[in-house]
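Bumping with the actual sequence this time:
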Amino acid sequence: MFKYAVAAMASLSLCGGAAMAQDSPDPIRMVLNDWTGQLLSTQLMGEALKRKGYSIDYVQADAMAQFVGLQSGDLDVQMEVWATTQKTLLDQAVATGNVENLGESGMKAKEEWWYPLYMKEKCPGLPDWKALLEPACVKAFSTAETAPKGRYLGAPVTWGGFDDERVAALGLDFEVIHAGTDAALFAELASAYQRKASIILWVYTPHWVPSIYQGEYIQFPPYTDDCYKTERYDCAKPSGPIWKVAWAGAIKKWPGAIAAIKKFSISNEEMNALIKRVDIEKEPLKKVVSGWLDANERWQEWFK
């Protein structure tokens, strides 16, 4: 009980306000997914909360299945829900009344098929998606693994994205091969790019890839809500904000913490640089997080 009293007093004295006095001493369960940017967002906020006296538990969860835990209250906070692949699940979760959208994170999401610029020599109709219908382009992107079909390297299956459905809907003679992990996805890109080998794959931003490698996104038919609502998937992926969300019960349980989380904001450019430090420069993620908090007093504003 003593440690709980200390935590509650620390929260009140450091942050002030009636809401802080009401915050529970229980640990806030913050979701970790399986890509570097999300781990950074979560731990930037989580470690900031720790510095204000909160107890934090980091809990690994599947990017799609996590919404069940958020609805039930087994998970409390998710710092990154992407409009590109998770909007439908978020809308459904919010509609139950058990999950609340805490607002935008400041980052804008884009996820789409991407290829290095050198592939245009073998498939000159790019970036128009119709070029992928041409036998010469299919051959250009084929590998021993998929020949005579082209090979598209997709993200881990748990990320969703409807790439298999899109291939079928648009009549593309491609086979979707899913990378096992985020790291494996971009390790294969690095290897192919160095050798100027054939590759077309899932690339997202915020991320360091578009700033390091020269390439383009495929231009698919424009996204429409109807394209996804009718489950045709014969269009581009949606783009838009990255949101913060919480179990609705967390609003009453930790009003001060949730108020701070609502104020959390970071730009694509800032996040790209942090991801690069972890993935490319191989700095420990915890060191990157603590260094950012030490160097940026801006996070203190989240608690005012």
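The tokens above came from a reply further down the thread. The first strand starts at residue 28 and ends at 32.
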